[in-house]
Amino acid sequence: MKERPNSHYERQIQEVPIVRMTKTGAQSILDHIAVEEPLEIQISYMEQQHRIKRSLVITMRTPGADERLAYGFLFTEGIVGKLEDIREFQQVGNTIKLFLEDYIQVFLENSERSFYMHSSCGICGKQTLDSLEKTTCYYPLPGVPIITSTILGQLSNQLRAAQSIFEETGGIHAVGLFDAVGALLHFEEDIGRHNALDKVIGYALEQELLPMRDLILLLSGRISYELVQKASLVGIPIIVAVGAPSSMAVELAIAMDITLIGFLRNNRFNIYSGQNRIIQ
Fold it and tell me: 182 FRET partner, CA 20 to 30 A, in 24, 74, 107, 261?
């Protein structure tokens, strides 16, 4: 087993009794599964000289890096633009409270969601498709960075080797952040793909890495519209995944000049947009 990544590890994996069926019969054993728990994100902000408190969202996530998840979520929802916009962070159990600076103006009509959000889909609670069309904070720079096929072929093995929770459960997503020479800078695991990406973006905010115009994002699953949209907000120029992209993900990647790569298997992959950043 890999080294346990943080103090939340015991909350991220649960041991459950199961019956395993094989050709030789039934066997009662203990299995490890990824934990899924609700996280409520609340915000406090000034409006007409009064401090307003509001529950923003409940998302189903794997515990761990909750603070980064909240930071990344607020950034990709356009509520804050930098970490300094958040005055105070509090967490009690599965509830996070974020106190915003007085100068922050909150326009929640741009990011209205139903109060409950599944781990499998970050935008299924969006009330209108129009609310998905946001203005990006940072555009990728045209034609940079230039990445070789050899570097791309090494990314998935690096991320897979780092995934301690996946090794034990086989049921969790990961998002990895790589530099232009293929070195793994940071990764997060979560039962929700959008949560894992928000955690990575929260890490980037903490480390003052924005904009991330020279970095590569690797997704362990498929590529949805929302994942491309979140990546575009921080200037990510190259998104790679071991799975397939959706039609809207491809359309948005083309519009944002993002290199989109799917079905990464060693040195084989499909380029759906931005081929000019990839060389042999």
Answer: 74
